[in-house]
Amino acid sequence: xxxxxxxxxxxxxxxxxxxxxxxxxxxxxxxxxxxxxxxxxxxxxxxxxxxxxxxxxxxxxxxxxxxxxxxxxxxxxxxxxxxxxxxxxxxxxxxxxxxxxxxxxxxxxxxxxxxxxxxxxxxxxxxxxxxxxxxxxxxxxxxxxxxxxxxxxxxxxxxxxxxxxxxxxxxxxxxxxxxxxxxxxxxxxxxxxxxxxxxxxxxxxxxxxxxxxxxxxxxxxxxxxxxxxxxx
Length: 232
What we know:
The structure is a single chain. By secondary structure, the protein is of the alpha+beta class. 24% of the residues are buried. Strands 1-12-11-10-9 form a 5-stranded antiparallel sheet. It has a 5-stranded antiparallel sheet with strand order 4-8-7-6-5, covered by helices on one side. The radius of gyration is 21 Å and the shape is globular. 16% of the residues lie in helices and 34% in strands. Helix 2 (83-98) crosses helix 3.
């Protein structure tokens, strides 16, 4: 996988390039020429008077959330916590909160995790890495839902309690950590590119929050130094 900050193409730049190359060149009947490119107009906003309702209390997956039912982390370091127990307790609590709606956790995944033991659980190998800059490691892991979707989770220790600081359901093309940043790479409709969501620790809000969203060149696992082919 490419390091953070390497070969990223901002989404706005890609859109600008697409507009300059394609404006005035196609319609429903096929290719035609209109001479000079047609003028670019401002986007038309749709349904401006309709806004989503705010999340109900306790149902915002992006907010720091204490995980109940776990032993105290007296050292203040996630090395002391048992990763599988943490993930099981977290998903069980989310399932209880959203009553199987799937808003916070995929219900089938939560039930599967509750019934599994040890290596039979669909949980990725946990990674311990300092994301907050306090010299103590956070716990990073993911629960695979169906071979494509996964539940990415990040936990820290706060006041001897385990606190989830990031929850993200995604198709994980890759996950990278560097210098306090956690980057989540996901496929796009163009197989040559992946979207990269860059999360950083926010002391004021006590959680991992999205800092930047960019595009990067896709990398085929079997050819790590070359872009993915057009067919994916």
